[in-house]
Amino acid sequence: MLTLHNMLNRYTQIQTKFKFKFTSQSQSQPHSIIDVDTLTKIINDHPFPDQPLTSTLLRHLPLPSTTTTTTAAASFAENVLGRLFASHSNGLKALEFFKFSLHHQPYFPLSHDALEKTLHILTRMRYFDSAWELLREIAKTQPQLLTLKSMSIVMSKIAKYESYEDTIEAFRKMEDDVFVEREFGVDEFNVLVKAFCSQRQMKEAKSVFNKMVSRFVPNIKTMNILLLGFKESGDVTSVELFYHEMVRRGFSPDSVTYNIRIDAYCKKKCFGDGLRLLEEMEGRNFAPTIETITTLIHGAGLVRNIGKAWELFNEIPLRNLVADTGAYNALISSLVRSRDIESALLLIEKMIENQIVLDGVTYHTLFSGLIRTKGIEGVNELYQKMTQRNFVPKTRTVVMLMKYFCQNSRLDLGLSLWNYLVEKGYCPHAHALDLLVTGLCSRGLVQEAFECSKLMLLRGRHMSAAAFLMLKRFLLKARDVDKLQELDQMTKKLKSVLPPSKEHTTGFSHC
Predict the structure, then answer these.
(1) Phi/psi at 218 (nearest 5 deg)?
(2) CA distance 190 to 220
(3) In this structure, is residue 262 part of a structural domain?
(4) What b/e readout covers 286-295, taking b as 16+ CB neighbours within 10 angstroms?
(5) Where are the PPR-type repeats located (predicted)?
C-alpha cells in the first residue's frame, strides 16, 4: 500500500549474500572469504562492551594488498549495515563497523547508502549526538557521501523524538555545519516539510511552510508531501481542502497527487470515490501506475468487494503493467479479510511459481489470517515453510508470532523462533523477549528464560524492566541469586556505555 513510509522513504533492505574476497598482507593464505550474513552474525555476537569491535573486524577482514575495488567490494559495507538495521543491532556496533570501513579506505569503499543506513540505525535509537558527530566527520572527509536522503533520515527522527524548535535548529545545523558547500533551495525545504509530515505533525508542517515559503519557492513535490501528510492523518476532508488550496496556488495535480487522493478515500472505505478519481485521472491522460491499481485492490478488500479486487488484479497486464509483490499482497489482504484463506495460500504458490518475492507484508498478512481461521496448526505449517525458505520476518511479525505461540502454550515454537533469529544473526526485539520470558517463567522454564535474557545483554541490547522484574521474581523464588547478580552486573556494565530508555531495566539494585 501507498503508506507514508513507503512513499516518502523507500528503503530497500538488501539481503543478498555477497562473497567478498580480500588478499591478506599478514597471512600466508592467499584469500580470506566471508559473506554478509556471516559478518553480520559476527558483529551481533560480539560481546559488548567488553571488547572493541575493531580487532575482531581486522581478524575477519584482513586489509587487502591491493587497492583495486570491485562492485561487490563497494556494496559490501552497505549490505552489512542493511542487515544490522533489519536485525535491530546495537547502534554503536553499527557505527564502529562504519568507522572501521571509513578509516580503512580505499580497501573498504563506502557508499552514500552505507552512511544512510548507519544514520538510520543511530537515530532510531535516539543517538543524535553520535549522528551529528558522524555527519560532521563525513562533511570534512567524504562530503560526496552526503545526500538529501541522509538529511531526511536525521530530520524525520528529530521531528519524531524532539521538539518543533529542535527540528528547526537541526535544519539550520544541516545548512551551516554539514552541507556547507550546498546552497539550500526547494529540495532541502521539502526535506524539512517531509520531516513533520512523516510524523503526521501537520500543524507544524503548515507552520514551517507558511514561515519559509517566502525564502523557498515550493514546487509540486512540496504540495504532494503536504497532501500525503494530511492523508496519513486520516482526515479525507483535510486532504480535499488542501488539494483545492494547491490548485488555487496554481499547481496542477500530477499522477502522484491522484494516487494520494485515491488512497485517502480507499482507506476510509469510500471505494466508489476512489474509482471515480481513477476515471478522472485517466480522463486527464495520467496513466495509472501499479501503485494506483494496488491501492484500489486493497480498497476493494476493505469494503469486502472481492470480485472487484480480482477484476482489478486481472486488469494489470491489460494496462501494460506488471504485478509486483505489492499487488499480490493487496489481493492476499483482500482474500484474508474475506476469510478466504485457501485462495490466499494458493496465491502464494502462484507468487513462487512466477518468481515474485514474498516479503514481510506477505507473511504478516497470511499469519494474521491463519491465526483467525486455521489456528495453531495452520500457523505452524506456514512458520515451518518460512524457516525452510530462510526468510526472516519483520519485527511486528516476530512479536505477533511470539505472542501467539506463548498464549497457546507452544513454548517449543517460541524458543524455536528465538533460536532461528539468533542463528540468522538477528537481535530479537525486546518486546519479543518480554513475551518469551513471561511464557517460560510461568511454566517453570526459568533457566531457558535466563539464557535468552543473558544473550540479549551480551549482544549489547537492554532488557525491559518488565522482563527483568519477571525473571528476578522467579530467580529469587528458586533461590538462584547468583544468576540474578550476573544479570544485574551485565545490565550495569551495558548501562555505563549504552544509556537505557525509560522502559528499560536499570539493574537489580533499583528494582
Answers:
(1) -70, 155
(2) 10
(3) no
(4) bebbebbbbb
(5) 185-215, 219-253, 254-288, 324-358, 359-393
- Give per-residue pLDDT as tens, 346-367: 999 999 999 999 999 999 999 9
Contacts of residue 18, Cβ cutoff 8 Å, sequence gap at least 6 = 35, 36, 72, 75, 76, 79
pLDDT, tens only, 169-211? 999 999 999 999 899 999 999 999 999 999 999 999 999 999 9
Q: Which three cell numbers stand for residue 415?
A: 524458543
Would residue 86 count as lying in a domain? yes
| Contact by Cβ (8 Å): 13, 86 | yes
pTM for this structure? 0.84
H or E element, residue 35: strand 32-35
Residue 111 belongs to a domain: yes
Query: CA dihedral in degrees (365, 325, 302, 349; nearest 10)?
Result: -60
Whether 121 is covered by a domain: the verdict is yes
Assigned C-alpha cell, 380 = 505452524
Instruction: Count how many domains the chain has.
Output: 1
Strands 32-35 and 19-22, how do they pair? Answer: antiparallel
C-alpha cell of 238? 483535510
How far is residue 4 CA from its own chain's centroid?
A: 13
- DSSP labels for 291-342? HHHHHHHHHHHHTT-HHHHHHHHHTTGGGT----HHHHHHHHHHHHHTT-HH
The domain in which residue 15 lies consists of 1-146
The 3-state secondary structure of 468-502 reads: HHHHHHHHHHCCCHHHHHHHHHHHHHHHHHCCCCC
Q: What's the Rg (C-alpha) of the chain? A: 25
Tell me which amino acid residue 506 is: T
Q: What is the DSSP track for 439-457? A: HHHHTT-HHHHHHHHHHHH
262 touches 274 (CB < 8 A):
yes
